[in-house]
Write a structure and sequence with these properties.
mainly alpha, 210 residues, channel activity, Glycerol uptake facilitator protein
């Protein structure tokens, strides 16, 4: 039943984005651990139903990898993006804070593009290999691998780009006032390109895994 998958994607994306937004507003130093952990537990909670993407770039990678069809991908994208915006609005209501959009120009734009491309690719590539590969069927470590990838990204590039590595998080960050509308394209372009590259990389490295 397709509707179940979309509901799971909405729930998982909501809690991921809410955690990102709340920790950003509060300014906790444990944000990378919180964000990586919520992704891990939500992947375990919903992975058996939807695959636990919670990220339009991951869904794009799964589409290129031929794990899902276009119809499901569109359903996933709608669920993820709507849930992300709703989560951002809830954060703004429950946490009285004000964020100043991250200023980006010149070389900083290029740096953000590179790091968002690299770590979105890493996240998508990890998901494809631990959660969709026939060499790792029914394994118990897929949620840990995905969650730790996001945690590493948050620690490594959080101070540079915010470690969005997820179009739903990127859109939510604009709603939250963390990113500026004028620079959102840099994040989205990097994330989309990374998702496509990860999908093709998996296919090239696993030619017999259809």
């Amino acid at each position: 039943m397709a509707g179940r998958k979309y509901v799971i994607e909405a729930i998982g994306t909501f809690f991921l984005v809410f955690t990102v937004g709340a920790t950003a507003y509060i300014g906790t130093p444990l944000a990378p651990l919180a964000v990586g952990s919520i992704l891990m537990v939500m992947v375990y909670a919903g992975g058996h139903i939807s695959g636990g993407h919670y990220n339009p770039a991951v869904t794009l990678a799964a589409l290129v990898r031929r794990r899902i069809d276009l119809g499901d991908a569109i359903g996933y994208w709608v669920a993820q993006l709507v849930a992300g915006v709703v989560a951002a609005l809830v954060v703004r209501v429950v946490i009285p804070a004000h964020a100043t959009p991250r200023p980006l120009s010149g070389r900083a734009l290029g740096a953000v593009f590179v790091v968002e491309l690299l770590f979105t690719f890493a996240l998508c590539f990890v998901v494809l290999n631990v959660a969709t590969s026939r060499d790792n069927p029914n394994n118990s470590f897929y949620g840990l691998a995905v969650g730790f990838t996001l945690m590493v990204a948050a620690i490594t590039i959080g101070g540079l780009s915010g470690a969005a590595i997820n179009p739903a998080v990127t859109l939510a960050a604009v709603v939250l006032g963390i990113f500026a509308w004028s620079t959102i394209w840099v994040y989205l372009l990097a994330q989309v390109v990374a998702g496509v590259l990860a999908g093709f990389a998996f296919r090239a490295l696993n030619p017999d895994d259809k």
